[in-house]
Amino acid sequence: MAVEKKVAAYICQGCGLGERLDTAALVDVVKKEGKIQQVKPHPFLCSNAGVAMIQNDIDNEGVSHIMIGACSRRSKTDAFNFPEVAMARANLREGVIWIRPDTEEARETTQEMAEDYLRMGCAEIKTMRQPEGNPNTGTSRTLLVVGGGITGMTAALEAAKTGYPVVLVEKSGQLGGWAAKLYKRVPSHEPYKAPVDNGVADMVSAIEADPNIKVYLNATIAKTSGAPGRFQAEIATESGSTVTEDVGAIVQATGFALYDANKLPEFGYGKSPNVVDQGGLEQLAREAAERGGPILRPSDGQPVKSVVFVQCAGQRDASGTHLAYCSGHCCNTSIKQAMYFKDVNADIDTTVLYTDLRTPGNGEDFYRSGQEKGVIFTKGKVSSVEPAGNTCKVNFHDLILDDQHACIENADLVVLATGQVPNSGVNIDFKAVEGEEAAAEVEKKTISILNLDYRQGKDVPQLKYGFTDSHFICFPYETRRTGIYTAGPVRRPMDIAQAREDATGATLKAIQALENAAIGSAAHPRSGDLSYPSVRMEGCTQCKRCTVECPFGAIDEDAKGYPLMNESRCRRCGTCMGACPVRVISFENYSVDTVGSQIKAVSIPDEFSEKPRILVLACENDAYPAMDMAAMNRTEASAFVRVVPVRCLGSVNTIWITDALNSGYDGVMLMGCKHGDEYQCHFVKGSELANYRMSKIDDTLKGFNLETDRVQTYEVAITDIDRVPKLINDFEKRMFEIGMSPFKGF
Amino acid sequence: MSNSSSQAAARYNNNFLKEVEAMVEEGNWVKMCMQCGVCSGSCPTNFQAGWDHPPQEIFMMIRAGKREEVLTSQSMWMCTSCYNCIVRCPRKLPITHIMHGLANYAHRLGIAPKNQPTRHFAKLFWNNCIQTGRVNELKLSLGLYFRDGFKQGIINGLAMKDVGLGLLKAKRLNPFELFKPHGCKDQKGIHAMLKKAHEIEERRKAIKTA
Ligand code: SF4
Ligand code: SF4
Ligand code: SF4
Ligand code: SF4
Known about the structure:
Chain A: Residues 531-560, 561-590 form the 4Fe-4S ferredoxin-type domain. The structure holds 2 protein chains of 2 kinds. By secondary structure, chain A is an alpha/beta fold. Chain A is built from 20 helices and 29 strands. In chain A, helix 16 links the parallel strand 26 and strand 27 (641-646). Chain B is mainly α. Chain B folds into 2 domains: 3-112, Alpha-helical ferredoxin (Fumarate Reductase Iron-sulfur Protein, Chain B, domain 2, Orthogonal Bundle), CATH 1.10.1060.10; 118-201, no CATH class. The longest helix of chain B is centred in the last third of the chain and has 23 residues, at 187-209. The structure holds iron/sulfur cluster (4 copies). One iron/sulfur cluster is lined by residues 33-39, 55-56, 59, 89, 91, 93, 95 of chain B. One iron/sulfur cluster (SF4) is lined by residues 311-312, 315-316, 326-331, 356, 358, 417, 419 of chain A.
């Protein structure tokens, strides 16, 4: 518990700060305007001596709140690591001297910048408390794995090896999933030359032998409630009874189904038994192996002498009728299946008709091995397959010879590469896409997999094409349901090697989530963050905006309609705080007040000084680092901006903008991550919601009689190192064009 | 030669590919082409008249069973052996050699295009050089000039006369070579060696066809 609040400030003079800035004046500002009496300049603050000075103040002087005026909060985090006190950092290095020219005429504005950042730091530290974390959350260390295929089995084995108990639920009567149906699989080790054993039997016996893994076969999840560390999974078992398991985190590995080849009558499927999909060929190959003979033509049991593989059957389809995407494994799979023939009898003609051969991973070596074995690859787009008697004629457009009427006659077997469709549950967004044309082709699934007890819906949200949610760039397994991770082909199409890697990754994230939950800390990406949103209930109007907008379904309603937080589901993005119209949601160290008071602390020059003030609210995950990196490159930027990092653009409460405009800022720039289908927002919906809220700001601006240009939202990626300074400088230019805000001095 | 319907049926089966593998120098490499087109893009002469099909296409035609089109194509005669394609092919195909192998095979079968200038020059060069073990440049160029008749020969000769005079002045051309060509030391030995090589080649090809 915080004893008495005692604030101290430290100003660094290293890294050129002492030469470029007037330290005495800075100390003065902190004392007089920041009202912090204990201010200590230091020639080299992050040195052992500097850190020891601060630590001594904490240990012996009872300092509970510190403000450090030095480099960016992203620098020297090891040195300035004082977990026992609240800390604010004023960015004088990357934020000021590194982006300003070292000239006589720039001196004044550079000094003003530094002084403002100190005023802001003082304001922030005074409105902050040190988060303490809530130990009152669940502590289950058991992992629930849903799905017993390669992905699920890998997840279970990896978790068990790490010492975490596992409950594995499989809907069918045996483990192994698709892989168990394969005669052989594509190799995943050197020398990538020949198909190898599917490896399922070994995994199954490893699972059976592991006392840490409890397996339910013929079982489904009837209900999942709770939050990380304290999920409750009700498992509907074989016997008809329901068993409840307490688990800390969940890996959903429910795999895929092959795209239904019956939708491809033009390729002869259903018209001739000699046209099969890749699954069908695996079955023929297994039968042949059991018999100890060659692969036979289904129509009359004669040995196959020529086989044609049709790639992208109903995939990479631009017409909107079939799958629009590449399933990423079927080219390698067809090469493998052609080897089933070639390895037994090199005289069998095996032709792969492809438009582009896509062999990810080490598939290139495998492809070359197929060529060496005499598998023929022909670049051509198949138009139709005509069954006649016991063979088929495959018509295609030869894309190299540009022959529209190319064909292969007398094919004994035609194999269609139809690709993967995810086995995800109910599409909770279905209503939203219902209006769209058939292209969306998102089938309405009625069977839920996780049967989540969330007000947002029964399953994990889905992205494009029905694959489950994940952040495709930064943290692929993370779903919008904290503590629930998806892995394998339910997340995106993939092969066995990738699925195993995926399972391992997701398992580690799941373990991280349950461990974090146990200490009351946030899950990725703010892992380690002990702060947590609290609601001042007296002020709450029960408007439910927070409940609806929380991207992670962390907020329910209690019986009276007040927000009820599920703490360990919360990712600490602050979106609820940005949403609340009466501003009653806050974190100990991040609140409407900590940011609002910083905004107000900036000194606003009068209308005639020709010194505009531009507020930049920058996402700390992407935009702020991009600015720091631009500063490292010494890219010059405007002296009139004052940057405040925010957890997510979603946490931006519109009151900050209104306050800024009211107090005489000339413009406001909001920088967040890309949103939409290919979002890069670390909190999925945060930047999108912010964008939506900001679209309403125009009305406010008009109400103030201000130009709408004065508030702009930008999508910024961490790589936009050159672009961000340019955006800022262009914005500054625009402010000079429009002229100073008329609200100054009121 | 097969009639057209049986030829169409042979399309896209591996018969011609197998023939090429057996009969053509380096023909076993054709299956390794991955149709990237780097060879065709790298070939400095490929866009000149006479190039019916760039190498990448020739390889595809072989796999597509287009026996006649391949063997009667001008393309492999147009290769200048610059080796650009070999250097760049990501699959390391000896493309230049395959092109020469195909040309040679078509020549042996007697179906290479008639009046193909490269083919003509190659024959001329070979016959000229095995006679004495040395290339007689005067005879070689005259043979080439007079290929299309006496009148055309004179015209060609006149067109090249400045070059000829220059060579004469620089003592790089001796008119008496026309009558008394000088040879290498052991002409008999050369002839014996070539005969032996020819025998070996025939034997090897006979085994392959068998
Ligand atoms: S892996 Fe190959 S066959 Fe499958 S969709 Fe992609 S390109 Fe088409
Ligand atoms: S909006 Fe963000 S901070 Fe608020 S409850 Fe949800 S996850 Fe937590
Ligand atoms: S948004 Fe604010 S006022 Fe509305 S329900 Fe949530 S806490 Fe209450
Ligand atoms: S460069 Fe090589 S692989 Fe590419 S088309 Fe030519 S021969 Fe084939």
